[in-house]
Amino acid sequence: MRVSLVVFACVLLGGNTCLTARPSSMAVVFADAFAALGPLLSVYNAYAQYQFTGTPVNVPFDLSATCEQVTSSFAWLRDELACQSASADSAVMTDAAWLALDVEGFCVRHESLLQSLSHTISVSREILDVASGTRLFAAIHAVDDRLQQLMSDVFNGLADGCAVWSFAVTFSMRTILTQITLERIDPSLHAILYGTPDATGPPFAVPVGVEAAMATLVAVQGIDLSEEEADIARAAADVILTYLLSDDATCDAQG
């Protein structure tokens, strides 16, 4: 009932509580949801490595606080998607609402265990066995899978090439900016920014400063970044993101 009321209320409001109907705004909330889930995923990956190699599982995070952030981010994602009146897909809206509710339940259900795991240099085998027995790691993996599927459904439902490009670029820029340590930028960024791997500029007209910022990122993709290069990359990503979220962003094709 709670899920149905959330969806119904947002449809009834017609998007009045949303940030905006732009694909870029949806990309931001997805990027933030993945960033919030990051610490839990790192624990899941560490446990998977432990199973294969016996490598100690280190948890530097306060997982209880992390779970609060995950709950908040997924609720924001739910609300933003539910209020997208321009692309009111009831299946997507319902999936987002259920996911937010299930994540909230996950955090409540595993609260004491997450506290036990937090800030542990080397988690004991006993605690790992308890976590595995309560399906903590399986639940983390399931949340990640559902979030990826939800984003795929939203992405595949975008109306046109401009919306697809705006979503992909915004998601990439926000992801860069949410990384605590930026060591390397995936070489696939060229194709995301420019539309294809062989293009030499963005497929849609952007201000000169934004195009220069894109060229800056393309120049440092695929290499190990120094601290100075990482700072330059973050500044460039911020320029691009700010533009795509602004009212000035257009979809005029490059001449």
Structure description:
With 255 residues, the chain is an all-alpha fold. The protein folds into 2 domains: 19-156; 161-244, no CATH class. Helix content is 69%, strand content 0%. It has helices spanning 2-13, 23-53, 63-82, 90-109, 111-117, 125-133, 136-156, 161-178, 189-194, 208-220, 227-244. Helix 4 packs antiparallel against helix 7. The longest helix is centred in the N-terminal third of the chain and has 31 residues, at 23-53. The radius of gyration is 20 Å and the shape is globular. The N and C termini lie far apart (51 Å). Mean pLDDT is 86; it is low at 1-20.
Which secondary structure elements does this structure contain, and how are they paired or packed?
Blueprint: H1 2-13, H2 23-53, H3 63-82, H4 90-109, H5 111-117, H6 125-133, H7 136-156, H8 161-178, H9 189-194, H10 208-220, H11 227-244
What's the short story on this structure?
The chain is built from eleven helices and no strands.
Pick out its properties.
single chain; mainly alpha; 2 domains; 0% strand; disordered N terminus
In N-to-C order, the SSE pattern is HHHHHHHHHHH
- Helicity range: 55-70%
* Number of DSSP-assigned strands: 0
CA-based gyration radius: 20 Å
Summarize the main sheet: none
Mean pLDDT: 86
Residue windows where pLDDT falls under 50 for at least 5 positions: 1-20
The structural domain count equals: 2
The count of helical stretches stands at 11
Oligomer: single chain
**Outline type:** globular
Quickly give the structural class: mainly alpha
Instruction: Bin the strand percentage.
Output: under 5%
Distance between the termini: 51 Å
